[in-house]
């Protein structure tokens, strides 16, 4: 199973509450994923988060099933857990009619 690193604080902010490590591990178990490891390291900064702040950041290493590619990032994990907890309704998808079909003609050289 793939393991993804999700920052704890943005995840908890998106879920609307804080969890202890044991509570979050139980939530993961109920949802069908596994909290593999918890790492605490100094914030090195990134292009998306900006310059290093020098604070400690906690990263959850979460094992996800190979067929759940929708939860390989913070946004997908947030949406899936919020739907599981009943905080959001499941997304609805609609099938739109196909665009006009293209025709490709291959002629011999």
TrEMBL record:
GO terms for molecular function: phenylalanine-tRNA ligase activity. Coiled coil: none annotated. One of its GO terms (biological process) is phenylalanyl-tRNA aminoacylation. It comes from the Eukaryota. It holds the Pfam family PhetRS_B1. GO terms for cellular component: phenylalanine-tRNA ligase complex. Gene3D superfamilies: 3.30.56.10. Residues 1-86 form the Phenylalanine--tRNA ligase beta subunit B1 domain. This is Phenylalanine--tRNA ligase beta subunit B1 domain-containing protein.
